[in-house]
Amino acid sequence: MGWNRSQLVDKDLFVMEFLDKINRDLSFEDRISFFYISKNYTIATNEVKEGNMTLAKHYFDKANSYAAKFEQKSLHLFRLSNNVYYRSYSLFLFKQNEPVRAKEMIIESMKNNLQIVEYDQDYLFILFDTAQQYLNLSQLFFVLRKPLLAKRIYIEVINYLISGNTKNLPFLKNLDVLNESENYKNLRTILCLETILSFYTKILDENNLKKEFYLFSHKITDDLLLKKDSIIGAIILMIKSKINNKDEDIKYYENYVNLNYQIQYQKYFQKINTLMTKLN
Question: Average model confidence (pLDDT) for the chain?
Answer without folding.
Answer: 83
